[in-house]
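User: Please predict the structure of the protein below. I'd like the answer in structure-token form so I can feed it into my own downstream comparison script.

Assistant: Understood. Taking the following sequence of 141 residues as input:
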Amino acid sequence: MLFPKKVKHRKWQTGRKNPNKRGADTRGVTLAFGSYGLKAQTGARVTSNQIEAARRVISRQMGKVGKVWIRIFPDRPYTAKAAEVGMGKGKGDPQGFVFEVKPGRILFEVDGVSETIAREALRKANMKLPIKTKIVSREIA
């Protein structure tokens, strides 16, 4: 699983709930490394477990050929309270890390495989993520 080596603050403030009202992303919206990519169409918080599951499915589908780039990194801690703990009594303990995806962000990129294999790998990776995505390809000029 991905997580930061060191964090400045153990617990972050929660922030707004609806990820789709935060507007589209402006960074990381074009293909930079690979020929095919997985682009977010909705927003959500993607956990490190979900990123790892998607990475595994892409790697398994592509075999030993090809290369995968993960364009997101979970650096935001999230907390949860233990079961049967009453209201109040402070904030819960850190449980893991998430990345806040906004619409337009490229999540994964692949290269070095045929278009059919790349599209199938990215389609399967989409199933592991809590957001709607589309598969984009590099424009050939």
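That's the full token string. The CA atoms of residues 34 and 111 lie 5 Å apart.
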